[in-house]
Each structure stands twice: as C-alpha cells, then as structure tokens.
Amino acid sequence: MSILNALRSDSYVDISQYRDQHFKGNRYEQEKLLKMSCTLYVGNLSFYTTEEQVYELFSKSGDVKRIVMGLDKVKKTACGFCFVEYYTRADSEHAMRFINGTRLDDRIIRTDWDAGFKEGRQYGRGKSGGQVRDEYRQDYDPARGGYGKIIKK
Amino acid sequence: MSRRRHSDENDGGQPHKRRRTSEPIEIEDRLESLICRVGEKSTSSLESNLEGLAGVLEADLPNYKNKILRILCTVARLLPEKLTVYSTLVGLLNARNYNFGGEFVESMIRQLKETLKLNLYNEALYLVRFLSDLVNCHVIAAPSMVAMFENFVSVVQEEDGPQVRCDWYVYAVLSSLPWVGKELYEKKDVEMERILNQIESYLKRRQKIHVPMLQVWTAEKPHPQEEYLDCLFAQVQKMKKDRWQERHILRPYIAFDSVLCEALQHNLPPFTPPPHSEDAVYPMPKVVFRMFDYTDAPEGPVMPGSHSVERFVIEENLHCIIKSHWKERKTCAAQLLSYPGKNKIPLNYHIVEVIFGELFQLPQPPHIDVMYTTLLIELCKLQPGSLPQVLAQATEMMYTRLDTMNTTCIDRFLNWFSHHLSNFQFRWSWDDWSDCLTQDLDKPKPKFVREVLEKSMRLSYHQRIVDIVPANFSALIPANPIFIYKYMDESSSSLPGYPVTIAISNAIINRSSNDEILTILKDVPNQEDDDDEGDSFNPLKIDVFLQTLLHMAAKSFSHSFSALAKFHEVLKILTDSDEGKLHILRVVYEAWRNHPQMISVLIDKMIRTQIVDCAAVANWIFSPDMAHDFTRFYVWEILHSTVRKMNKHVQKIQKELETAKEKLEKQHSKRKDSGDEEEDKNSDEEDGLLEEQIERLQEKVEFAQSEQKNLFLVIFQRFIMMLTEHLVRCETGGVDFNTPWYKNCIERLQQIFLMHHQTIQQYMVTLENLLFTAELDHHILTVYRQFCALQM
Questions:
Q1: Which pTM was predicted?
Q2: Where, per UniProt, does this protein localize (chain A) (predicted)?
C-alpha cells in the first residue's frame, strides 16, 4: 500500500541516468537488472587506490563478495574505477546511501548501480586505454595520470 | 555523455507518471503532500498554514474522508517529531466536524491495537502520545485519557508476563506526561496522583540486573548512565514539582484555544491492554546516554539539566527525526539543524550527544554504524564553523574516559573515529594525546590510539600513517603489512621442507595438476607420525604448500583469492581433519601476522569455500597460539564475522525450506480447486519431488542449526575456561583480578551475548544446564544473568 510516498523517499538508492552503452539487451532489461543489482560501479578513484582500501571502506556497509579493479586496457594497470559486489541487495543499498559521496584515499568517490560484472568490463573504454573521462579531461589531476590525454597530445 | 547524478537533483525519488484518467489519485497524492508538508519552512506562519489546511481538508471530507483518516493516522504513527502540529490539525477538524473527530479517534484506537499485536511498540508509543496530546486540543476528554492510563498502569499488577511488558506500559504513560501532564492533573489530580504512586512503587520493586550490561561507561562520574525508566520518572517528578510547567514543546493549539475550546470532546473507549502472548517481543530496556551538561557549552543558550523534562523532549524529538530520515543523510542533517526552538538550546551539543547515544547503544545501534559517520560528516558540511568543534570536544572527552568505557563501545568509537579522520586528511592534534605514550601498551588509551592507527592504515597506507603522527608516537604505529615468508632464501635452506617449497613453486608456475602437487608433497617428512603413509595430518605439508602458495599470491587480495580457488582441492585434502583446519589457520596467521586485514579476508574465504569451518576459527582464536593477540580488535572482528556467517547460513537454509513448504501448500490448494483427474496424477509426481526436496532441506536445516549451536557452545566454553583460570590464578596469587586483560575478556563475553542475542535466545536451556550453572564463578555467572534479564 503506497501511503505517504513523500516519507518513503530513499533517493540515494535510485538508479541514475547512466546506461551502459555496451550492455547486451534493451533499456528495460538493463533497468530491471539495475534495480535488483548487488553490484556497484565506483568511480573517481585515484590510480593508486588499492583493492585493500576499497575492501575496508565498502565492508562498512556489509560483507563484500568480490571487488574487480578497473584496468587500463593497454597497460593493465589501475585506471581509477572498480566494481564492488555484495552478497545482498540491502548491503549494497547501504553503500549507496552512506559511502557514495564520501572520501576514499582523500578523493570523493561516486557509486552507481551496475547491471553486473562481465569479463571485459574491467577495462577502460577510452581510446588510450583508460577511462573515457580521462581522454577529454582538461584539468590536472596527479592521482589520475596528470592532464587528460587530449591535453597531453 | 554526461553521467547525471539522480541523487544530486533536488527532488528525491522517481518522477511521478502523469495519469490522464484518474483524477482522484492525483487529488489523493496532493492531499498526502499537503498534510506531510505542513509545518515545514514556509512564507506564512504555521498557524495560518494549519488554518488553511483545515479548511481544505474539511471541504474534501465528503469525498475523501477515508483517505484523510488514513493519512492522519499514519503521520501520527510515523512522524512523532511533528506530533503537536498534527494534533492541532485534528483539533481544528474536530471543531468543524464532530463526527470526523470521533471517527479519527476510533481509527487511532484500531491502529493502536494493531501495532501492539504486531510488536510495533515504538509506533504504539507515538500513538498513545498523540492521543494524549488530543486532550490538549479538546478532541479527547481528559477523564477518559486518565482511565486509559489507569488501565495501562494496572498491567504492573499482572501475575504473569515479563517485566519488559510492564515496563512498556509504564513508559507509555510517563512519556506522554510532558505533553499532557498539566491538563490531566488539572482535571483529575487525585487519579493522576494514584497513577504516579503506583508507578513509583513499581519502579522501586522492579529488578535492574540488566543495567550494567547496557551502560557505556562503568563510572558514575561525570554523568551517571541512568536506567531509562528511572531517568524519566525523575524528570516527571521534577516537572510535577514545577507545577507541570513545560517550556519547550511547540504547541500550535494554544493559538487556536478560542476555537478549540468550543469543540465537543470525545471519550476514549475503554482500552484493555491485550494480554501477554508467547510471541510478544517487547522493547529491550535502555540506558540514557549523557555526555554533556551545561558546563560543556561555553557560550550561548544553556543546556537543560539531566532531569529536566525539556531534556527528555529534545532528545526524543531528535531521535525521532533520525528515525524518520536516516536513509537520506542530507535531509536528516537539515531537519536536525532546523529543529524548532533551536535558538533556546545548544543544538549542536544535543545533536552530537543523541548521535553518539545511538551509535553506542547496547545491544545494537538502531541503525547501521556507517550511517552515523556519514550523518556527522554531512552536519559538519552544513555547520562548518561550529559543529566540528563540538565533535572534537566530544572525541577528546571520550578519549579521556576510555578507562571506563565498555569494550564494545570502544570498538565503535575507534571505527567511527578512523573513518571520520579518513574524510578529513587524518588531521588531528595527536600531540594532545601524548599522555598515552607513557602508559603500558595494554592500557585503554595507548591501545585505542594503536587500533585507530591500524584502522586508519587500512583506509590509506603505511607511510601515510607514519607521516601523520608525531615522531614520538612510533611505538603505536602499526607494522608494515608485508608477508613473512619462512622459506625466503638460502638462509632458510636448513628448514625441513625447504627443498619441497622450491619444487612446489615450480609446479605452480608450470601449472601442474593437483595430483602432481600432492605427489610432490608426499616428500615432506611428517614430524607427527613417522609411519605416515602420506595421508594423515602432516602440519609441515600444510606449512610448505600454503606458505609457498600465499607468498606467490601475496600481491593483492584478488591474487590470494585466486590462489585459494585454484588449489581448493589440494587444500581440502590437506585440511581434512580438525587438526588440519586448525593448522591452516596457524600458517595463515604466521605468514600474514603483519597484515590483520589479509588474515581476516582469507579466513572469510576459507569458511565460505569450506576449507575451514566456523568452530575451527573459534578454537583457533581461543588457542594459546593467539593469546598474545587476544585483546586486539582484528581478532574480534574475525570472530564476530564468523558467527554472523554461521547465522546467515542458517537463516538462508531456513528460508529455502519455508519457500519449498509454501510452494507445496500452493500446489495442494490448486489441486483441491481443480479436481481434474489427469492433473491430479501429474501433481502427485510434482508433490513427491517437492516433498523429497523438503525432507532434504529439513535435514540441512537441522544440521546447520546443530553446527550453529555447537559454535556458540565452543565459544562460551572457551570463555568460561579462560576466565575461570584467570580468576583462580589471581585468587591463589592474592592479586587483583581486574586487569586490563580481564576487563577486555569479560566484556568480549558480554559482547557475544549482546551482538547475537536473538540467536542465542534459542539455546538458553542448553546454556543454563550445561555451561552457566550455579558452580561457576559469580563474576562469569553475572554476565549470563544480566543477559537473561534483558528480556525478562
């Protein structure tokens, strides 16, 4: 019974506008998976942030099942994102509510629902091998390889 | 393409779909919205908003009466922090429409009965409070409210039923008095006096064995940790002495007095408290958390005293705000900071005190620990000029009082503090705490700093910790978390088994099969058993294989998990016995003793992949090998995580069994309905399969439950052995038993009871008959008795 929708607001848990363009399936299927997912995408990590640090932080909202660190497709080194998978949806919701938007390794990290890890998704999709955002970035970020690739060229 | 963040937008929640045809639903949404939002920040005064809303609702009563009733009942139940706003609204409606007022009261009583039946005691409490405030709004006649209170208090005369049942009914009466005490005493002072006397004599005779187990600090100074009913009664007594003056509660109905006193009142129907039943779960007793008093807020408004009724109301309201908005940290912080009447109180101090009160609440905080960390960060963002200072003051205060702080609370304190610091570049005036450097490392203060630094390192890295503390803190800096490889190089070549490690490394690099590896391992001499054919427990074999494997996989958690997965078969064969399981834990510890986090995640993996079982982990923690680390925080993280895994496992299988049973039920009822012979035959087969599955699951559940029971027995037995040994040794040696080690150990025993109380309740009979018998040392038995008292 939906009474008092205004009171039941849980906006930190809502799915965002982002949709994975490489997802095999239609929008509806992707959204369905996002709404029951136990996997989070974590972005804005420093290249030096370790799996251990991610474990420690994300364990605060529940038992972590698996972490997959994001890698530069060419160099196979960390390129500033990862996936965190929980055993239960409830634990991952707590992470969206209380870990998203706080700091890890001195950087504000961002979490978002992910439809589920599949082999290959651990690689950056930018032309140079890292994440797309680091291709076109104009600012200098020492923890993410300095200037964006477009500046370096 | 930009990644627009939904949570960054100002409107929370999903956008409503516009329905073209169903207008009534839009109106209902609008009614909901109007009612929920009244009392929020507005350009008009609260009074004019209430007046306007009362007019709107009155006009909508002919068509939407039931919806309006439902919404109002729900806000009464779920928004207690806005109690007086809504009671005023109901008062205004009652003045305009007497029948509606009567129907509302009836709905409330129905809801009260429902919530009591469903063990929703907090919500029931808010309903009772709302009803009592309706007396102030001339909706309910005072004598009938007094009659309800009389019935509540008569529960204390009942023969059967646990103390916690009487506690709730007494609490329901007492906690309504700040709102309605004055009015009830004015109308029915003789009856109220009798009620208070009955309550007083109940409070005098009720047992309070549970109190020490729930106190955050064991010391009485500077603030006694009072039992919640005692504190509230003292506050009510004080209010009575002040002639029921209460200056804090916002009472919008006062402005409408001329309208409201013209209204006809309703009588509450006689309300008999539902009888006690076996599945009733009453709220646990609490201790009132206090850390500040009027001396702590240096300037500005004065903090109401510990026995002032204002203090109670403020704390109640702040708790209610957190309860309503804990999922939305920005809203929660904003609501806390815009608390009505905030200019007359040192609000930041109250907020910090209430938040820590919840975080340290025993047995468990009302919400997940990490919520409080994030909420405090959010509050710091909104009040950067004042809140961080209060937080620092609180931290300093809690540091100075570590000697008497409950170990479980110290755990939560250090978890919070290290996580908090990691959000603020670990900036802290460590020098202020240099007093801890002169103390023994096992004393609470240096221990606390060590554990904070260790936890902080997990969120950063070793060099960072070295950099953030002054040089003289070096003894408290955690070890560099590197692997200790026993068979490192030529210098270890004399160790037995060394040559085999070389062979194993090569075998792993060359992707040899499990059989090939086991064959290589046959060459490892068995120091336990010279006649060994190669199959019995051989600790050196485990050592050689696991040390080598873990060394090769030391780079990261993922590497180590991969290694465990790849050689799962080999590990299972090597650890087939109980001794094998214990030894693998020893090897992991020896290799990774500088990296407790790694030990923790490896043990977690090994339990989940059934290389070791939970009882083995418990035995290992209590073994002499681990005695030197027994008081370290990571050890208890591992034990509690292990118990939790066991509990979740049992719950999972129980759920599977329930689901299967439900499926069978459904199939049976479907068959009854159809009556088709062909279908019947097929269903018979399906039934058979399902029944088989249920039987198997039933066995699985029984097995899991017995494993769980065994785990708790092992843990309790070991505690009893350790503590008894210590107590006996101290007595015969004529030394004081109350050492830091003892305090830690006995409070860890308490912690097991408190953290897993729901599960442990199932095994009370066994515990009482087998372990916690009368012959036990009374110090240990007291912990058990305190635990039992929590639900008595």
A1: 0.94
A2: Nucleus
